[in-house]
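Table S4 entry, Isoprenylcysteine carboxyl methyltransferase (ICMT) family protein.
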Amino acid sequence: MASMSNLSKQSPAESLGMAFSGWGLSWGGWLDNRQGEWWLLAQIILIAAHLLPPWPSLERWGYRWPLPMTSFGACLFCVGVLLVVQAFWRLGASLSPLPDPKPAAALVTMGAYRRCRHPLYQALLLCSAGVAIALGSLLHVALFLALCLLLRGKARREERKLMILHPEYSAYRASTAAIIPGFPLLDWRS
């Protein structure tokens, strides 16, 4: 009970600091991918590539992307950002950017994790789709598709580890969508 009262006395900054500690990142891991560091690196590269300008440029062809599409894409991006914050907050100390979960991490199945097993990945895909729609860019559509494949692979690795750490994960996995409910590439249930 004392640990619960200590948790409630923490400021949001302290809670966030605890979430970022203990990730297990090391130079050796970046070299040999021992905890899935290469998945994280590829994810960072794909997310950063969303900062590239739209290609092909529609304006070169004398076409302007419709404002309603730009607005819809921007709204979708904002919803994705809000969902990222919600999922981060819910994970708390179990948060890790690596596909290998923290050894002592609790299994979170409430809040955003009731909707799908990987709400952070779902939110990242919403952000990516929002950028592609807002810009009307084939390059960004390709980045979205690449991110779908990458996050699917990263999630599959993560789930293999979660099955070992949490025997109850099998039931959760069978009843809850993976990333996007009903989309075969991103929803595998056992």
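Confidence is low (pLDDT under 50) at residues 1-8.
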